[in-house]
């Protein structure tokens, strides 16, 4: 009787162990399955929403998007709040050292070229601006063309980008303003002539339905860069030809340290489908998808 009881107990334990192992395997994250959080520089939010939506529709994966300023994204990344991020810059030496101490080598995948767009009220008669005039204004020199510069967030990637061009370490106090979001910048500029807003191009090419009326009331300025004689608009063609002065590369930074959704999602965005999504968004894909042409030896005319 005791032998029978021990045997039954053994099989029960074995059954439970197998069931637990199956449960763990079912919930284990892979490159195409599981759950993860994607930290996104807020200036790049619209196109990444599209990427996540299509990725989730094709695979058994759930990716939550956490849009923050660039500074907040970096802080969350190094604190291991999330291990996948979309940024407009690579990690610097100090940030790389943090991950090296954790025995992790971040995988950085270039996915697109974006433009920092300068926008003004559509009632403005002047849609041209010299980058020198913008930089001079940031350094305290008045400009008859610029009443003020408006950024989305004091900690955003656009502030860092423009500060670097102007040789500044902090956002100027005079004539430069920051709100909370790119949409707030667009709204403000649409209602105030003479102000120049600084936003990610994607917020103009893919506005939410409720923002379309405001986007229609602003115009992206054509820019003359250093050592340029002509002005160029922030569009895909000018970005591709290196003519638009405020272009920047976009990266997916994967610090998971294992073959998880970070690897799968980065590969998807850098692949054919992801690059076509970027092309449709108005940004420039890092690798322009090839066009497939169907050549027929004979054309059938079905019309009678």
How would you portray this structure in words?
The chain has 2 domains: 30-113 and 249-285, Periplasmic binding protein-like II (D-Maltodextrin-Binding Protein, domain 2), CATH 3.40.190.10; 114-247, D-Maltodextrin-Binding Protein, domain 2 (3-Layer(aba) Sandwich). The longest helix is centred in the first third of the chain and has 26 residues, at 2-27. Strand 1 (33-41), helix 2 and strand 2 form a beta-alpha-beta unit. It contains 12 helices and 12 strands. By secondary structure, it is an alpha/beta fold. Strands 1, 2, 3, 4, 6, 7, 8, 9, 11 and 12 form a 10-stranded mixed sheet that branches. Strands 5-10 form a two-stranded parallel sheet. The protein is globular and about 60 Å long. The relative contact order is 0.18.
């Amino acid at each position: 009787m005791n032998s029978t009881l021990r045997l039954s107990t053994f099989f029960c334990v074995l059954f439970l162990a197998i069931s637990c192992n199956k449960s763990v395997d079912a919930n284990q994250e892979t490159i195409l399955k599981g759950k993860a959080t994607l930290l996104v520089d807020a200036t790049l939010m619209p196109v990444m929403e599209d990427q996540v939506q299509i990725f989730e529709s094709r695979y058994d994966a759930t990716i939550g998007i956490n849009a923050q300023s660039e500074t907040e994204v970096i802080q969350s990344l190094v604190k291991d709040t999330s291990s996948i991020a979309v940024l407009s810059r690579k990690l610097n030496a100090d940030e790389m050292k943090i991950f090296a101490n954790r025995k992790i080598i971040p995988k950085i995948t270039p996915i697109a070229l974006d433009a920092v767009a300068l926008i003004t009220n559509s009632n403005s008669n002047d849609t041209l601006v010299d980058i020198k005039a913008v930089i001079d204004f940031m350094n305290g020199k008045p400009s008859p063309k610029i009443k003020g510069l408006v950024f989305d967030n004091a900690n955003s990637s656009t502030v860092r980008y423009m500060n670097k061009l102007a040789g500044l370490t902090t956002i100027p106090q005079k004539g430069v303003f920051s709100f909370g979001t790119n949409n707030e910048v667009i709204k403000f500029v649409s209602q105030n002539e003479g102000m120049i807003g600084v936003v990610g191009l994607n917020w103009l090419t893919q506005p939410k339905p409720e923002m379309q009326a405001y986007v229609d009331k602003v115009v992206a300025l054509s820019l003359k860069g250093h050592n340029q004689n002509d002005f160029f608009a922030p569009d895909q063609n000018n970005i591709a030809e290196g003519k638009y002065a405020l272009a920047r590369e976009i990266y997916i930074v994967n610090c998971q340290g294992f073959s998880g959704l970070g690897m799968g999602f980065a590969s998807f965005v850098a692949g054919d489908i992801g690059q076509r999504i970027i092309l449709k968004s108005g940004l420039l894909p890092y690798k322009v998808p090839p066009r497939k042409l169907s050549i027929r030896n004979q054309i059938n005319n079905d019309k009678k």
